[in-house]
Specification:
The chain is an alpha+beta fold. 51% of the residues lie in helices and 19% in strands. The chain contains twelve helices and 13 strands. It has helices at residues 2-59, 63-78, 110-117, 126-134, 152-157, 190-239, 242-258, 265-296, 306-316, 318-323, 340-356, 425-435; strands spanning 82-88, 95-104, 120-122, 138-140, 162-170, 173-182, 302-305, 327-330, 335-338, 365-374, 385-393, 439-444, 450-457. A hairpin with a 6-residue loop joins strand 1 (82-88) and strand 2. Helix 6 (190-239) packs antiparallel against helix 8 and helix 9 crosses helix 11. It is elongated and about 155 Å long. The protein starts with a helix and ends in an 11-residue tail after the last strand.
Length: 468
């Protein structure tokens, strides 16, 4: 009987020990699970915080708004009761100035705010200066016992005990410093440092973007001034430079009329050459003006019927076509959004070239056709369809090695003695095509004619007025 009782007691003891082990294991597992859940909760909060910081940095309309929003978000998350932003004077370091970007949760901190705003922090001076000097986060555990804080009396009287500062950097340069203060004595926290490093990256991008936008605005102002100067030069060319040329031609005519009987053949030849040179210079000035006015005096894009425009251009050239015994055939052309005067000018230049560079052995035959195609490489503000205009002739053509050169300013493939011109016409055509977010290219074989292909978007979004 005693043996049985002893065995039962031992069995009960083993069961009790086993239950105790299982209870401890369960408690440990629950503790691990609770810690895991707590860590997961903290990670989720940190992820939400970082998302909020990134959103503020990317969506804020100004740099100041981005910094203020981030300052508020960080103080709300950490519980720090005072937050402030300092900026360097020239984005290259040297000294820090107080800004009007604050997070102040209680009125009693206003004395510290007033003292801070009256100070300038040089490298190594005060908490902001230390951050500026090292380019790294700095922590003050006990403000009261840190004489280098510089505002100790104001901070302690407001009940503030710990402070933390971190830099915002672009490359190797600190351009701003965030400073936080709290009434709780707070040990350095690596998680906060990681959050601030992420914040530094986001706000550094904000400042870089702001600087780039400022530079872009400055360039835009300079461009406007340059365009205004070019317009003034164009106006001078339109009047002051052409007036002497008109006088040369006029006085040449007077000489030929009044002293015709006394002029030798050689004298008349000299006057003719003088007048022809003045006429060529006048044409060159007119073409240079036309080139500059593609952008300086452009008109807004409107829907235009290319068939109507092409027929009007041909009608204007009727006498010249008859003199050349030529024929221009116009197919069905679509309606596009464009500057009507510039499209007329472009068609006139190309058709004139086709008539001018015709073969002596064959009357000019010129065909104008078009097709609508899907676009693959148009600017983002153009729709995904384009019009391809093709102008073909049976003229003298040119070597295709000059296919790009012919669109350059003052570029000529054929000798001046045989064909008149300034070498500006096709340069104007290319500039017009590019202003319409399109292009112009040419194909040819000598004595086999030429083929010009113009691509223009059918439609544009509203911002096409930018190009006007």
């Amino acid at each position: 009987m005693n043996k049985i009782q002893t065995a039962l007691e031992q069995e009960i003891l083993h069961l009790q020990q086993r239950l105790e082990r299982e209870r401890k294991a369960r408690i440990e597992a629950e503790s691990i699970a609770e810690q895991g859940l707590r860590a997961l909760y903290i990670k989720q909060k940190e992820a939400t915080l970082m998302q909020q910081i990134a959103t503020a940095a990317n969506e804020a309309p100004t740099t100041a708004k981005a910094f203020q929003t981030v300052l508020d978000i960080i103080c709300d998350y950490t519980g720090w009761t005072v937050g402030h932003v300092y900026m360097t004077s020239d984005l290259v370091g040297g000294e820090l100035y107080s800004t009007d970007l604050w997070y102040v949760s209680k009125a009693k901190y206003n004395i510290l705010r007033k003292v801070t705003e009256e100070m300038v922090f040089h490298v190594g001076k005060g908490l902001p200066g230390r951050v500026l000097e090292t380019g790294k986060p700095q922590w003050i555990l006990d403000i009261a016992n840190d004489p280098g804080f510089l505002r100790t009396a104001a901070a302690v009287s407001a009940g503030l005990k710990s402070a933390f500062g971190f830099p915002v950097r672009i490359g190797e340069k600190t351009v701003a410093v965030f400073e936080f203060l709290t009434e709780e004595q707070t040990e350095p926290n690596q998680r906060y440092v990681e959050i601030m490093n992420f914040t530094n990256f986001q706000l550094g991008r904000v400042i870089e973007r702001s600087r780039a936008e400022n530079e872009l605005r400055q360039y835009a102002v300079k461009l406007q001034l340059t365009n205004r100067e070019l317009q003034e030069i164009a106006n001078i060319a339109a009047h002051d430079l052409q007036e002497p040329l008109r006088k040369i031609q006029a006085f040449g005519d007077i000489i030929k009329i009044k002293v015709a009987d006394t002029l030798s053949d050689e004298g008349r030849d000299y006057i003719d050459r003088m007048q022809n040179a003045a006429r060529r210079m006048q044409h060159l000035i007119n073409d240079m003006l036309a080139f500059s006015r593609v952008t300086l005096k452009a008109q807004p894009f409107v829907p235009i019927d290319l068939t109507v425009i092409a027929r009007e251009v041909v009608a204007d050239m009727d006498i010249r076509i008859q003199q050349a015994h030529g024929r221009i055939t116009i197919g069905d052309l679509p309606t596009v959004e464009a500057d009507p005067l510039q499209i007329r000018q472009m068609l006139h230049h190309i058709l004139s070239n086709s008539l001018k560079f015709s073969r002596h052995s064959a009357a000019p035959e010129i065909r104008v056709s078009a097709s609508i195609e899907d676009a693959t490489q148009l600017p983002a503000h153009a729709m995904r369809q384009l019009c391809r205009i093709v102008i073909e002739d049976n003229g003298i053509g040119f070597d295709e090695k000059y296919a790009d050169r012919i669109f350059g300013i003052f570029q000529r493939v054929h000798p001046n003695e045989q064909y008149e011109g300034t070498g500006m016409g096709l340069a104007i055509c290319r500039k017009i095509a590019e202003r319409h977010n399109g292009s112009i290219v040419a194909e040819s074989t000598p004595d086999m004619g030429a083929r010009f292909m113009i691509t223009l978007p059918l439609r544009h979004f509203e911002e096409h007025s930018f190009h006007a």
